[in-house]
Design brief:
Chain A: One of its GO terms (biological process) is transmembrane transport. Chain A: It is a multi-pass membrane protein. The structure holds 2 protein chains of 2 kinds. Chain A has 11 helices and 2 strands; from the N terminus they run ααββααααααααα. Chain A is mainly α. Chain A has a single domain, classed as MetI-like (MetI-like fold, Orthogonal Bundle), CATH 1.10.3720. Chain A has a two-stranded antiparallel sheet. The radius of gyration of chain A is 30 Å and the shape is flat. Chain B is an all-alpha fold. Chain B contains 12 helices and no strands. The radius of gyration of chain B is 24 Å and the shape is flat. Classes of the chains: A mainly alpha, B mainly alpha.
Chain lengths: 344, 309
């Protein structure tokens, strides 16, 4: 028996109690716990394109809203003597930025021609009335952004309110409200905007904002309604109702936080849309009117001289394009960040 | 199906009725008359001109006449071109707009599908990135900026195409390109997303396992299934084309409806503004209805029902 290799003698002394602390703790959470917001921010930072867009947008906002504090030039001050001067940055000698211009084939110093002192220089040149183009672009960007942001805020409020109400109430109310949206969205939005802008006649910020806000909210309403329909049958809402919470409070405390990602993503696409339509309306001449400037009016003004002074249109157009790009790319990034499961 | 159709057609008319009503009263709120050189006219001359346009009647009567007229295909008289009926104006300018819109749609959708498919097949490579950049640029560069740039660089500098006007096919190339950018971008983005989805489904795996060529898989299996949801893009694309046509036609002096619309806005020609508004709305409504019907036919999974959703 003792030769049997399979027989192992096990004595109680062979066992020792394991130290509870020493073993791996399966319950331990190694990474710091993140809130939803932190998690989104982390994913957004990981997305290079979106993060760059974010930085670019911050810079553009700083330029539009804080630029005038650093660059003391009145965007509306006219000096006809210095009209149509090309960009000139002292010390830079690249054609296009040195104040020279091609006139019938020969290179001419436009500043000398205008009899400007050597200290006079406009970083991005001047327009046909001798207004500083850089100052005007800053001012125009601010107007464009203000219009887009206010309009977006209004249509966010209307859209979310309408969507939640429609989804929450359901039944006849929902049916009726859906018909309104259906009718509104089968009218080409631009036509409505044109109508509103002409109807208010006093072309200017208020009429554009009203026109933009009135038409753009339907997508937001549709999205929030669909989400509300899903959410309202979930247990936590049922619990809140059982506990006697009032409907507005449920909407505010329980629905809105859960809708926030949909709302934020949609907002990121509404803003560039609003910027585009504002520029469009101003471009065809029924938006912001002349002494005021927006990116649309600047492009439209610059277009008149495009053949000879292309910079007058290029610069505002570039700002507009960068603005649209940044918002769209950030929007894409946000969508990925809020919904990591999405395949895009 | 029939019940659904009837319901939709009813809503179509309701929508158009509301559009016509709102437009009419908005336009009535505004100043502006068909009178030119108002100061020089005598009172009786003024009265006779106003009577010609039916403006001597009370507003509510004008409204009923207008709505009644729509059913007879009449949209009133233009203020700008005296004696010209708005419906005639629209009809005579429809050709160029439709041709331009059709060409732009064709170019945009075909190129968009190719671009989107390349993006999806070569996902996460430089080709995908290039396609994405192109399609994002198509959204970010407004049509009027693109139109001006095309006109200047390809029309004036290189002199490849005529700068403006409308007398032959070569004249349509630049405006078509300018107009096609936005449908191209939308289509490419849409197709890419959709095809990435389709390419990861099981039947594509099966097709690969059967040994089909890559082209065969993409063309016969992936693309066809990605194209079905494309139908839903018709509405937004048409709307985008209408928007674009207003500036593009203006920049290239194409005698189309969009150009006329902008002109009418600038000279306060209300009957024409109203007429074009109703025309555009009708066109979009019809396209949306058509979209839903076509979608129901080609994708049997979609059930047409009268109950929303």
């Amino acid at each position: 028996m003792a030769d049997n290799p399979n027989s192992i003698e096990i004595k109680p002394g062979d066992f020792a109690p394991l130290d509870k602390q020493a073993g791996p703790d399966n319950e331990k959470i190694a990474a710091p716990s993140l809130t939803f917001g932190q998690d989104v921010w982390r994913r957004l930072k990981g997305n290079k394109t979106a993060f760059t867009s974010f930085i670019v947008l911050i810079l553009l906002f700083l330029m539009a809203f804080g630029g005038q504090a650093l660059y003391h030039h009145d965007p509306n001050a006219q000096s006809p003597k210095y009209a149509n001067l090309p960009p000139k940055i002292p010390g830079v000698n690249i054609h296009g930025l040195n104040g020279h211009i091609k006139q019938s084939g020969t290179d001419v110093d436009a500043y000398k021609q205008a009899g400007a002192k050597s200290s006079v220089h406009y970083i991005l040149g001047t327009d046909y009335l001798g207004r500083d183009l850089l100052a005007r672009i800053m001012y125009g960007t601010r107007v464009s952004l203000e219009i887009a942001l206010i309009a977006t805020f209004i249509d966010l409020t209307i859209g979310v309110g309408f969507g939640i109400l429609s989804g929450w109430k359901g039944g006849r109310v929902d049916l009726f409200m859906q018909r309104i949206i259906e009718i509104l969205s089968s009218v080409p939005s631009l036509v409505v905007m044109v109508l509103m802008a002409t109807a208010f006649q006093k072309t200017g910020m208020a009429s554009i904002i009203a026109a933009l806000a009135l038409i753009n909210w339907t997508t937001m309403a549709r999205l929030t309604r669909a989400q509300t329909l899903q959410l309202k049958n979930q247990d936590f809402i049922l619990a809140a109702r059982t506990l006697g919470e009032s409907a507005p409070k449920i909407a505010w405390k329980h629905l809105l936080p859960n809708l926030s990602s949909v709302i934020i993503i949609q907002t990121m696409f509404t803003i560039p849309n609003a910027i585009f339509f504002e520029a469009f309306l101003s471009y065809i001449g029924i938006g912001i009117s002349s002494p005021q400037a927006s990116l649309g009016t600047l492009i439209s003004d610059g277009q008149k001289n495009f053949q000879f002074l292309p910079y007058q249109m290029w610069y505002p157009a570039i700002v507009l394009i960068i603005l649209m790009l940044a918002f769209n790319l950030l929007g894409d990034g946000m969508r990925d960040a809020f919904d990591p499961k999405s395949k895009r | 199906m029939r019940k659904y159709l009837l319901k939709r057609i009813f809503y179509l008319f309701l929508t158009l009725f509301i559009v016509a009503t709102v437009t009419f009263f908005l336009m009535k709120l505004m100043p502006g008359t068909p009178l030119q050189n108002e100061a020089k006219l005598t009172a009786s001359e003024k009265a006779s001109i106003l009577a010609q346009y039916g403006l001597d009647k009370p507003v509510w009567l004008q409204y009923f006449i207008y709505i009644g007229g729509i059913f007879k295909g009449s949209l009133g008289l233009s203020f700008q071109f005296s004696d010209q009926a708005v419906s005639y104006l629209i009809g005579s300018r429809m050709g160029p707009s439709m041709q331009l819109g059709g060409q732009a749609l064709l170019v945009g959708v075909v190129l968009g599908i190719i671009l989107g498919a390349i993006g999806a097949i070569r996902k996460d490579t430089w080709a995908d990135r290039l396609a994405t950049i192109l399609s994002i640029l198509g959204i970010a560069v407004p049509s009027f900026v693109l139109a001006i740039l095309l006109q200047y660089y390809l029309g004036l500098k290189v002199q490849l195409f005529p700068v403006a006007g409308w007398s032959g096919f070569t004249y349509t190339i630049l405006p078509t390109l300018a107009l096609a950018a936005s449908p191209l971008a939308e289509t490419a983005r849409f197709i890419r997303t959709d095809m990435v989805d389709v390419l990861s489904s099981d039947y594509i795996e099966l097709a690969k396992a059967k040994g089909l060529s890559k082209f065969g898989i993409v063309y016969h299996h992936a693309l066809r299934n990605s194209l079905i949801p494309m139908v839903t893009l018709i509405g937004p694309l048409a709307a985008a084309l209408m928007t674009g046509s207003m500036v593009v036609e203006n920049i290239f002096s194409v005698p189309g409806i969009g150009e006329q619309f902008v002109k009418s806005i600038l000279v306060n020609d209300y009957p024409t503004i109203m007429g074009v508004t109703i025309f555009y709305s009708a066109l979009l409504c019809l396209l949306l209805l058509l979209t839903d019907i076509v979608y129901g036919i080609i994708d049997p999974r979609i059930r047409l029902s009268g109950n929303g959703d």
